[in-house]
TrEMBL record:
InterPro entries referenced in this protein's UniProt entry, alphabetically: SET_dom, SET_dom_sf, SETD3_SETD6_MTase
PANTHER family found in the cross-reference section: SET DOMAIN-CONTAINING PROTEIN (PTHR13271:SF137), UNCHARACTERIZED PUTATIVE METHYLTRANSFERASE (PTHR13271)
Superkingdom of this protein's organism: Eukaryota
The SET domain, residue ranges: 14-221
The protein's name: SET domain-containing protein
Entry's Gene Ontology molecular function annotations: protein-lysine N-methyltransferase activity
Amino acid sequence: MDPIHSLLEWAASKGVSIRGIQPQTKTNCGIGMTATKNLKKGDVLVTVPTRAMRGLDTVPAAIRAKLPQEMSIHGLLAADFVLNPPADSWVKVIPTIDEFNSIPFFWPPEAQKLLPGTAKRLLKKQQSNFGRDWEHLQSAYPHVPSEDYMHAWFVVSSRAFYQETQQTLVYPWHDRLALLPVADLFNHASVGCKVSYCAESYDIVADREYGKGDEVCTSYGEHSNDFLLAEYGFLLQNNANDRFDPDDLISSRLSLEETALLKQMKTLAALDQLCGPATSDEGRVENTPGAIDHVRLQKILAKFLEEIKGCRQNVLALDDGKERYRTLLLQRWDQIDELVRRAIRMSIPSSGSEST
Ligand SMILES: C[S@@+](CC[C@H](N)C(=O)[O-])C[C@H]1O[C@@H](n2cnc3c(N)ncnc32)[C@H](O)[C@@H]1O
């Protein structure tokens, strides 16, 4: 039996139901969900009963007892995944560690160095979180190979859902995680199906109409492409939530006066608005409080374009035959280039407006 059918059969035996969609292998994004008929807004596509999930409450007491109290849920679920693996039918559709190679954590340091600052900061946090969980795991279970734990840890970070129970509430919200079979096969789109949950089950509900054959996605959140890259290893082409942080571009080329101006503009939230998603509302600049020096702002943004050119050249100079992360880095810098150009266009005051 092929792995998808075997998963669905096993999941059905655990009470998971799936209606009007089917997991299917996609180009460049593993498995995703496809509509098998026309779907209406509000259709419940997948129901996963709580008893089919792997959360804090299903980690065996023996495993929890050996690990420190302060171990994250993320770390505990990964430990459970390695020490007490899910059914084969579920594991067989989960990517192997090699298939995580588009996630920057798995890139060589010379490629990681070329990430934009936001993605680099997220990576650092991930490295430190993983390091902390791995240290705990290793002390309690020295026989577990680091690669197995790393794989399990990234299975959790790339597939888990938010779970709120009495027990998870004492953990930070971003760590209230649980694994859900079948529901973890939805790919991400900026706007996607809704996830609703109660004590008994999780439902994935159609957010709009879909035609037969359409890919049906959920939204993992309003994430920028730096976040999607660092956390999941992909970039969206048209991401309504994409942004760039001016701090990501090395400000060493700016004079002290320009740096001060940039800080002032950020405080006024003017640059933040400029660097947000494109809109036709060019009047926004005039609506921001305080005085904006448009000419200076454009000069600074033009310097950013120079920085980006340099970053692209550094990526092109990477030469170890590994195309995947090179392509992702180039795509990301091109997207940031486009965001900066859009900011330049938007910073031009519309005619007739007061130049401040
Ligand atoms: C929750 S899983 C979704 C199912 C996954 N495609 C699979 O084969 O198991 C999340 C992973 O799917 C991939 N993914 C999700 N949405 C994507 C998208 N819009 N474009 C490319 N890859 C995507 C990424 O590899 C991400 O880490």
